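seq:
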Amino acid sequence: MQVGVTKEIKNHEYRVGLAPNGAATLVRHGHQVLVETQAGVGVGFSDEMYAAAGAQIAPAADSVFASAEMIVKVKEPQPLECRKLRPGQILFTYLHLAPDPDQAKLLLASDCVAIAYETVTDDSGGLPLLRPMSEVAGRMAIQAGAHALEKSQGGLGILIPGVPGVPPAKVLVLGGGIVGINAARMAMGLGAQVTIMDISLPRLAQIDNDFGPRLVTEYSTREHIAARLPETDLVIGGVLIPGAAAPKLVTRDMLKLMRQGTVIVDVAIDQGGCVETSHATTHQAPTYVVDGIVHYCVANMPGGVARTSTQALTNATLPFVLQLADRGYRRALEDNAHLRAGLNIHRGKVAHAAVADALGYEYSPL
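struct:
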């Protein structure tokens, strides 16, 4: 199979879908790898490194889209890229379709086979291709929140760990999944007072067992969230329903409960955000203010640490890329139910139940 890798064109996105070692592995398996020139330069992977791995270097994205049987990317294809997809061509990348009906329409019209990293599953019920980026985003959320809390950025002017004689910041984490745990760990490492909320009592019990009294756990309801907001300095939104739009846990009216300069980092923004007033931002302009509350809603947070993120992501995706290339997508999906869970769009139909429900399409399983 010819596997194509294009340079990401989303704002300040430097990650790349396949590292040189991944290209070398595919070549050893008898496949051809076509890499757009400069695709990996943002993370230190030169064209020469890909060429040494056995890949061919393409002068532009058009030639990659025109000839590759499978396109391996990082972020969802932009409209320009969607229009370059061919009937039956495999697209393997993050899609996050639930809050993005325009992208869904373009993918359906392209007649491609779109497999989303974020809905591939594993034996434990986890999301192995979302996990590494969730780990990165959760840890970055505290970095971003700490910076946004500075007075010059519109924040409260609070130092997260405090200093002797001055109490630390209070951090509220919504969601006890991978994002939430990593955010909580980072916040506690800085000395913050951290509360984490979730609707799963077994998950809260596990978190309590792992962290003990250093971390406060609380069952998540709108009333409990509202009660915490007046005393909270930094809110991290880390909830996820695989394939579906994120629930709105903080409404616009609830912003009135918060002090001016409080910061919200909505990591769930890829799935539409868990705060009613959230909308996607970029690394170039990461924050905005609504009713005095600073919102950080960068939709590709891990792109800010692109080298670390690329290495973590490609470590996780390469085995699945190999399965698709070695067996073809139909055989690969038949053989691996977890990879089959990643299928979102198949030849003009929506093949994932949660995506179909979120966007109002008929669900058409493969």
